[in-house]
Amino acid sequence: MIALVCPGQGSQKPGFLSQWLELEGVRDHLEQLSAAADLDLVHYGTEADEETIKDTAIAQPLIVAAGLVTGRLALTALKGQDLILAGHSVGEITACTLAGVLTDEEAMRFIKVRATGMAAASAATPTGMAAVLGGAEADVRAAIEAAGLTAANSNGGGQIVAAGSLDNIATFAQNPPAKARVIPLKVAGAFHTSYMASAQEPLADFAATLSPAQPQFELLSNYDGQALAGGQETLDSLVAQVTRPVRWDLCMQTLGNHQVSRIVEVSPAGTLIGLAKRAMRGTPSTAVNTPAELEELTEALSA
Predict the structure, then answer these.
(1) Which of 17, 32, 108, 174: disulfide with 36, CB 3.0–4.6 Å?
(2) What's the rounded Cα separation, in Å, for the pair 215 and 231?
(3) Any bridge partners for residue 265, and if so which?
(4) Can you state the angle between helices 104-124 and 26-37, rounded to 10 degrees?
(5) What residues act catalytically?
(6) pLDDT in tens, 226-241
């Protein structure tokens, strides 16, 4: 079994889609996704600077679009393989779409509502996130709660991301848990916490207009790392994900239980493979960031 995984916000880099436009059909696909999101994703993926693509309202649609473009190509290379799909945070929308729950157009319209709502929620209150590296997990979680923060992302490999008010983040960073380091992250807000509640209602309203399909592959939930059984359950989970923590550690635990033979991360790749190298030691991995890396994947599978 091969795991196809999709990264979340913060993985984007300036110009990361440039080489993909050299492939036949990619520009057309990206322009179709741009029309659905009402954003020039060709520009943002090739010419826009780092500061511009950090904007939540741009970053989220860009990451999903990149994942769909490169994920479709990866699925062609992986045809005939036994697959399991998962995505981190906004990448879960990419994974659900590659699994067939939503169409590409529906996914881009969905992410536009999500990104706009989360950007507005972030602007309403000064909040942020900080990575906690090391320490005993129980001690780290207790310290995060005592600081008035939320363990918003549990990424495995000794990494938990705390989220909440900037004041609480600053105080927490000055008083880290035992044997741990606290590193404030350059993000716009406290994602996957109650601070994002105002973004959830419009997303739920939009989701109610969709008719999700059954997943065509096994698809893991960020909520508990378990398989999502049906289309409506998957869509409901995507809406709830806005305010509830991401348990990527549990997703990797499930991938380990399945004894996956390879992890393939779609563009912009690297983050999830990096986490897997610590938590799933010895599992071969492929980052699909360029057409050359996609070709290397095809050759590896043939061998």
Answers:
(1) 108
(2) 6
(3) 5, 287
(4) 50
(5) 89, 192
(6) 999 899 999 999 999 9
Q: 10 Å Cβ neighbour count for 129?
A: 25
Q: How many CB atoms lie within 10 A of CB 259?
A: 8
Q: What is the pTM of this model?
A: 0.95
Which residue is associated with the tokens 């659905």?
36
pLDDT one-digit tens code per residue, 254-295: 999 999 999 999 999 999 999 999 899 999 999 999 999 999
φ, ψ (nearest 5 deg) of residue 26? -70, -45
Q: Determine how many CB atoms are found less than 10 A away from the CB of residue 32.
A: 17
In the chain, the amino acid numbered 161 is V
Which stretches does DSSP call E strand in the chain?
A: 2-6, 83-87, 127-134, 150-156, 159-165, 180-184, 218-219, 246-247, 262-266, 285-288
- Cβ-contact 105, 32 below 8 angstroms: yes
- Residues with Cβ within 8 Å of 76's Cβ and at least 6 positions away in sequence, in order, are none
> What span, in angstroms and rounded, lies between the C-alpha atoms of 103 and 90?
16
Regarding beta strands 83-87 and 218-219, do their DSSP bridges make them parallel or antiparallel, or are they unpaired? parallel
